[in-house]
Write a structure and sequence with these properties.
The complex is a heterodimer. Helices cover 43% and strands 20% of the residues of chain A. By secondary structure, chain A is of the alpha+beta class. Chain A has 2 domains: 58 residues, no CATH class; 194 residues, Phosphorylase Kinase, domain 1, CATH 3.30.200.100. An 8-stranded antiparallel beta sheet of chain A has the order 1-6-7-8-5-4-3-2, with helices on both faces. In chain A, helix 2 crosses helix 4. Chain B has 2 domains: 75 residues, Rna Polymerase Sigma Factor, Chain: A (Orthogonal Bundle); 89 residues, Winged helix-like DNA-binding domain superfamily/Winged helix DNA-binding domain (Arc Repressor Mutant, subunit A, Orthogonal Bundle). In chain B, helix 2 crosses helix 3, helix 5 packs antiparallel against helix 8 and helix 7 crosses helix 8. The chains are: A alpha+beta, B mainly alpha.
Amino acid sequence: MSDETQTIGEGDLQAWVDGRLAPERRAEVEAWLAAHPEQADRVAAYQSIDDALRAHYDPVLEEPVPARLQDAVASRRRWRAAAAVAGWIAVGAALGGATVWQLQAQRGPVPVAQPEAPVIARRAALAHVTYAPEVRHPVEVGADQEQHLVAWLSKRLGGDVRAPKLDAEGMALVGGRLLPRDPGPVAQFMYQSAPGRRVTLYVRTEGPDQRETAFRFAREGNVRVFYWIDRKFGYALSSADLNRDELLRLANVVYQQLNP
Amino acid sequence: MARPGALFIPMSDAGSLVALIPRLRRYARALVGERGAADDLVQDTLERAWSKLHLFRHGTNLRAWLFTVMHNVHVNRVRAARPTDTLEDDMPELAQRAAQGDALMVRDLERAIEALPTAQREVLLLVALEDLSYDETARVLGIPIGTVMSRLARAREKVRASMDGKTGTKLQIVK
């Protein structure tokens, strides 16, 4: 046989199966295989095994992801650990400046002297970027089960949680999910406009010492957030798709609906 | 205010982690077979990954890193559950059962994969199913690339041998 016979080893054959040979080497291996039909049959069988593997297991990619796995990423403990590691401020600063300032809303509540640190804005922004890009599973419970969704989140947050109706603003409710947080759980509602622009409303319970605040605006990377505290709950409305004015208008609608 | 690079984790990593869950589930399903057990493995992997996220070097391959985490979690679980089980490369092969027709081919494939020692199964799945390079596979599993190649060859040959005659193809290896 030729010199190639001696130099072509099992590793070459495996790499041929995996399509990982350089073109010249691939040509050498294929010439050798042409002269060794049994070996050619063997590597062809390997390829068909690979094909069968993918055909058999690829459908797993299309299965809905169980909520417990999404929660494993978003759960309170990991959330806090990630926050501690990443540093919320570092995150914002590195992604374009954590600009936070106070804004007197036209019809919002009265501002207080000592604004709460905008942790809620950062967490809401993180939750937004985590779930808003999701195509298949943006929410745990869809808007088609809105009653169940609201009842479930109210029970978990220990208060009367409502999903504002923003259809008049061109924003339809997609659904919601639960996001654990210290000291209690957090709800996230997601809305989407016809062109696919998304907004999330982050709702968390506040401690008894929290007072009402004005609307405040924060920007985390490309996510804009209006947030406020109103009695029992803290709210943050986030979007990467809406500009500040659009988001503010929406925040006013949300606020008014939650305070009829 | 950003901290030094090694500690910096962009917000997008949280989204990336979520986006990679289906890939982790596919690999886990092929690795451990049963759906519930596979998702348990994914869940443990995600939780461990979160707690170790500061060890991930941003800019490197997050998916390969997650497979590394899953490998470690899986190996620990197998060791803890069945100390004498199939971590070693060479284990007696399961007796092959005769199967009839294509309808059983899928079960034959599952059985053939399941019959592989864990070390060989991991290599085969990372290369053939997950399309990792040999180098990435070696790093994920913490083994030399030569070991990747030998395990891959053995795994493929075992699966081929156990599928042989069941798919209508008669194949003989010539050594």
